[in-house]
Amino acid sequence: MSVFDDVTRQERERDASLKWSRTPGAIGAWVAEMDFPAPPPVLAAAAARVTSAHLGYPTPAETAELRSATCDFVRDTFGWQIECSNVYLAADVLSGLVEMIRRLTRPGSAVVVPTPAYMPFLTLPATEGREVIEVPCSPDESGVYRLDLEGIEDALKAGAGLVVLCNPWNPVGRVLSRTELEALRDVVGRYDALVFADEIHAPLVHSPSAGAGHVPYASLPGAAAHTVTALAATKAFNIPALRCAQLIVTDANLAGRFATSLHLLASQHSPVGAAASAAGYSRARGWLASLNDYLAGNARVFARELGACPLLRTFPIEGTYLAWVDATALAQLLPEGRSVHDVVVKEALVDVNNGGACGSAYADYFRVNLATSRELVTQLARQIAAAANAYAQAG
Asked: Is the bond leading into 171 cis (omega within 30 degrees of zero)?
């Protein structure tokens, strides 16, 4: 029995985490946090920092420790050799995106977001007065989502200046191949555009030995000069409350242009988060490997359970702990005024993300968080399938 099997519904409802408190009575499966406790080395590091006499600003030694741990982790995990001076700290990934839009992009230029996308990528650019150009992407014949490179190129040709790349891809669970990333690099390079590479889920790759290992976009020849990479330990080690991310900028010219923002962002991270992140990167790798194996098993169970329902379509999950479900067939059977999201949340009693928030083309899809016990994954999948099957039988 795995340590990850210890999660119970009663325990999670009693804890009243955000994921479990939004819809009382439903299984919490929406916001991207795990039901698993953070690994012991991470908890110990956070506790040591909190119980110390020093709860002020981070010291240079603490900052250096996290930068070093980040460099070692990306080298050992992804084969990407970077210098510690290339690592900058921030409170979170999204603050890095906002500052990049403000400081590095052409005034008024649009932001390109391949969809389905992480929801804030579609709303945050507007806070800076920027248009978002959605580029809807589709799965190929084998059910694997692919970037629409022609759509991205059309947006850049029309004057957009920044592409938001999410890899591993939230919400569809893809880990983009080197070939796909090289093709994107070539498109971006033709238009002197920039890339914000959100790689927060990079540690959560299920089967790297099977050829689905994460390739940092900025590690590709010719990509670093136009890329800011965002990484964090918060998803992999379940510490989102500790507010610490890492921005990696390996091109000296780009870092110089971004220097004011990088200095500002560095002042906003939590020193408790920095200590916990360093511990995760350096002392919890075995735990992370076990987690990825467990998440891969959860993905298989989820696909198997929903595979018996003809009204629902799942997609291969190579990374993250998120599942993306196409329920357009179910939507066609629903009475007027009833949505797919209503069925899943109110009838299946599983609190999920509405796919429409991930892009205007996806109102009949939904996102499910599978980072919980195998028992709960099985239960939530069966409840969703049963609710959908009831409409199939009625039809």
From this structure: yes
Q: Is the preceding omega at residue 168 within 30 degrees of 0, hence cis?
A: yes
Q: What is the three-class DSSP state of 327?
A: coil
Share of the chain above pLDDT 90, in %: 84
Please, which residues have CB within 8 angstroms of residue 369's CB and are 6 or more apart in sequence? 19, 28, 29, 30, 31, 32, 33, 321, 322, 323, 352
pLDDT, tens digit (0-9, with 9 covering 90-100), for 231-243: 999 999 999 999 9
Residue 157 burial (10 A CB sphere; 0-12, 13-18, 19+): exposed
Rg, Å, the chain Cα set: 21
Cα–Cα distance measured from residue 200 to residue 70, given in angstroms and rounded to the nearest whole number: 12
Q: Could you tell me the CA-to-CA distances from 361 to 117, 135, 170 in Å, in that order? A: 11, 10, 16
Q: Which of 383, 329, 321, 351 is nearest to 171 (CA)?
A: 321
Q: Both tokens of residue 318?
A: 């190579």
The answer to whether 185 touches 220, Cβ cutoff 8 Å, is: yes
Would you state the structure tokens that stand for residue 86, as one six-digit string?
Answer: 């290339």
DSSP for residue 5: G
Give ∠ CA 38-209-140 in degrees, rounded to 5.
100
> How far is it, in rounded angstroms, from Cα 40 to Cα 335?
49
Express each pLDDT in 10-43 by its tens digit.
888 777 688 999 999 999 999 999 999 999 999 9
On whether the CB atoms of residues 296 and 357 are closer than 8 A, the answer is no
Are 333 and 89 in contact, with CB atoms under 8 Å apart? no
Residue 139 token pair: 């799965």
pTM of the predicted model as reported, rounded to 2 decimal places: 0.95
- Beta strands 138-139 and 132-136: pairing type? unpaired
Tens digits of residue pLDDT in 79-121: 999 999 999 999 999 999 999 999 999 999 999 999 999 999 9
